[in-house]
Recover the amino acids of this structure.
């Protein structure tokens, strides 16, 4: 069995869908953050895959973008966690069903 | 001194007025201060009056005036002024002196009244208004003060406002005198229109001076009669006399002040003041207006003397006697005896105030009982009141020599005998003298003689503050008889401004003996009829129908009620019906039309315009409700929406390629 681009894309799409599902369905804010991280990871996997199966030799653009994305994701996770803590301090809960002030 | 008092004549009414205002502004009920202020104001007015009286004595026919401009409109200037002449001077002294006695008497009489200080404020106000009438040199100023007198009398008659009868009497007095005042006011306007001035004396240009009088011509008769209407109302002459007896509802000092001594005298004073208007163009001393005055006076004097015979209320008898005496004065003025009329007015002012205050003392002693049939035998218990009352009674009846009324009455009878039109007034006035003596004797016997009946069982003499003024007034009554003797007619000359010829023949005229006989007849008849009377009235037993007729005041009040008042009620009912059904109907019709139009536009507004706006807003509201539902505030829904959108975009892209 040869390893093809389609296989990577399938894995990546599955990863994205799992992440999306987690972000949409979990009630716990931390799990939503984890879901978002998974979606970012799926996007990074796509970059690597398209770079690897693209015309060779090529500059290491895909790898670079992915490294950047991971760095930014780390920062974003820090901001997200800080938000979760702030929300918890304010509402005494991090169940997102009970946090519905983001309207109007 | 004399010039000063002319220029400051206005001080005489101003002082009591200031006293009145001060009393009204006293905080709380300060009884002593109120009485002190009122009496002090009156004493000051008396002092000024006497100092005004003195210079008028020096010169015969003295007259000085002080005019000033009150208002200027356009070319015209309305001028008012004060005049000082013998008529004013004697009236001033009489009013202030009598008022002073009454004020002092009131201190005792009203001692238990809770509105003591208000009473004194009104009394002072009344005195001020009356003094204003006397010093006015302008018919307008006189009219203003005249109306103030009317107001003061209204306030004082209705002083006991909690009594329905007092309130009704006050209203009756005010309205009845107002009827006469309408005539007075019309006369005033007419006088101004024809002569161009309302000043009496203005150095030759006044309306009572020759230049002004000639410009009047024939209208003088009508003007005089219209002004006389005011005098009829104020002096209680027939047919407007009905208010005066009812006015006895006020406190007794008020009756003495207003309805005996001063206010009712205003009418007689007015006629005397504008006498040149009445006598203009007189032939042999007779003019149409003076003839009317005589007959009104005769009718008044007789009717009220008759009614007085059958009254049971001590004050009502005096009230009718006042009406009768005022009629006598009017007769005197009408037949040309101006000085005699005014002298009788002066004498009457003193002795009638004396009688009223005496009756006040009696009423006070009998615990507010006014029915003479309940009294009796007071002679022993109230010696001072009895003595002074007897003096007043004899002065009123005209007992000669020592009682002032006799001389003036005799002079009036003398004047009527000289009247060229008819001798009837002369004989009728003689009958009046008999009647006066008769009803006063009746009253004396009922009140002071015989057995003590229910009301007088526990009677007591009044305190010195009440008997003092009685003594002063009694003294004045007797002193006036000396001043008024025909043997020394200086007061007569002083008033008329001409020298009277003192002849011995004049002194012992037959009229003197006739009047003596008349008075003796009246008193004798009274003693004969009422001697030993206990409860029933001898006249009632003998002539029940006549007595009933007189007791009910000749049914004059009822007659007015059936005629004039019925007419008034009918007119009121008619106007009411007109107002209620016709005008009100019109108003309702237009109102209904307006309402109809209003409801039409309202319907259009609601169904047309408003509904459109409502629908539009309804749509907006519905959309808003749906969209706000989407905004749940739940982040995951938003996230889901983003995912859905992205999916849609992807599918769209796939469909494109």
């Amino acid at each position: 069995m040869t390893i093809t681009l389609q296989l990577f894309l399938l894995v990546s799409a599955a990863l994205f869908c799992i992440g999306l599902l987690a972000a949409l369905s979990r009630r716990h804010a931390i799990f939503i953050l984890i879901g978002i991280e998974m979606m970012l990871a799926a996007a990074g996997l796509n970059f690597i895959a398209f770079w690897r199966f693209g015309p060779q030799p090529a500059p290491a653009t895909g790898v670079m973008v992915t490294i950047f994305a991971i760095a930014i994701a780390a920062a974003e996770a820090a901001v997200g966690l800080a938000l979760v803590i702030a929300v918890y301090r304010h509402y005494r809960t991090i169940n997102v069903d009970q946090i519905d002030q983001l309207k109007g | 001194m004399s010039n000063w008092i002319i220029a400051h004549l206005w001080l005489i009414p101003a002082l009591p007025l200031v006293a009145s205002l001060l009393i009204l502004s006293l905080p709380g009920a300060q009884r002593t201060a109120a009485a002190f202020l009122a009496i002090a104001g009156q004493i000051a007015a008396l002092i000024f009056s006497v100092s005004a009286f003195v210079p008028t004595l020096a010169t015969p026919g003295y007259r000085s005036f002080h005019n000033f401009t009150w208002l200027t409109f356009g070319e015209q200037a309305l001028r008012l002024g004060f005049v000082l002449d013998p008529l004013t001077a004697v009236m001033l002294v009489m009013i202030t002196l009598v008022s002073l006695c009454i004020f002092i008497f009131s201190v005792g009489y009203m001692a238990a009244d809770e509105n003591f200080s208000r009473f004194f404020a009104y009394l002072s106000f009344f005195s001020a208004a009356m003094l204003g009438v006397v010093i006015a040199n302008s018919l307008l100023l006189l009219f203003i003060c005249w109306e103030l007198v009317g107001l003061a009398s209204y306030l004082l008659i209705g002083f006991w406002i909690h009594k329905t009868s007092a309130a009704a009497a006050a209203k009756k007095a005010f309205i009845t005198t107002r009827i006469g005042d309408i005539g007075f006011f019309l006369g005033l306007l007419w006088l101004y229109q024809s002569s161009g001035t309302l000043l009496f004396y203005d150095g030759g240009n006044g309306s009572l001076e020759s230049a002004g009088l000639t410009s009047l011509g024939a209208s003088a008769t009508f003007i005089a009669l219209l002004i006389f209407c005011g005098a009829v109302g104020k002096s209680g002459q027939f047919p407007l006399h009905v208010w005066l007896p009812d006015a006895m509802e006020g406190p007794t000092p008020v009756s003495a002040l207003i309805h005996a001594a001063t206010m009712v005298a205003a009418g007689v004073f007015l006629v005397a003041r504008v006498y040149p208007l009445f006598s203009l163009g007189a032939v042999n001393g007779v003019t149409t207006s003076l003839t009317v005055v005589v007959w009104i006076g005769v009718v008044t004097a007789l009717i009220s003397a008759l009614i007085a015979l059958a009254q049971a209320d001590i004050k009502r008898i005096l009230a009718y006697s006042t009406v009768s005496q005022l009629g006598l004065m009017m007769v005197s003025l009408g037949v040309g005896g101006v000085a005699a009329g005014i002298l009788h007015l002066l004498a009457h002012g003193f002795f009638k105030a004396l009688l009223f205050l005496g009756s006040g003392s009696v009423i006070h002693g009998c615990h507010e009982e006014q029915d003479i049939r309940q009294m009796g035998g007071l002679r022993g218990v109230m010696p001072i009141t009895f003595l002074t009352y007897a003096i007043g009674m004899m002065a009123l009846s005209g007992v000669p020599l020592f009682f002032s009324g006799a001389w003036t009455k005799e002079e009036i009878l003398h004047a009527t005998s000289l009247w060229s039109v008819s001798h009837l007034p002369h004989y009728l006035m003689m009958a009046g003298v008999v009647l006066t003596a008769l009803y006063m004797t009746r009253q004396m016997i009922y009140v002071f003689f015989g057995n003590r009946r229910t009301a007088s069982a526990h009677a007591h003499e009044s305190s010195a503050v009440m008997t003092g003024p009685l003594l002063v007034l009694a003294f004045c009554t007797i002193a006036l008889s000396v001043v008024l003797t025909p043997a020394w007619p200086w007061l007569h000359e002083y008033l008329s401004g001409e020298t009277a010829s003192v002849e011995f023949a004049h002194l012992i005229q037959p009229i003197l003996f006739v009047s003596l006989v008349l008075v003796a007849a009246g008193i004798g008849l009274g003693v004969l009829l009422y001697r030993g009377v206990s409860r029933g009235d001898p006249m009632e037993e003998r002539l029940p129908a006549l007595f009933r007729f007189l007791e009910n005041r000749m049914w004059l009040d009822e007659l007015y009620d059936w005629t004039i008042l019925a007419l008034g009620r009918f007119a009121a009912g008619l106007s009411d019906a007109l107002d209620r059904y016709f005008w009100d109907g019109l108003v309702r019709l237009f109102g209904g039309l307006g309402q109809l139009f209003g409801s039409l536009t309202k319907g259009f507004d609601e169904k047309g315009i408003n509904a459109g706006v409502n629908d539009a807003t309804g749509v907006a509201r519905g959309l808003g409700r749906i969209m706000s539902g989407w905004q749940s505030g739940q982040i995951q829904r938003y996230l889901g929406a983003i995912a859905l959108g992205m999916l849609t975009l992807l599918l769209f892209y796939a469909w494109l390629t």
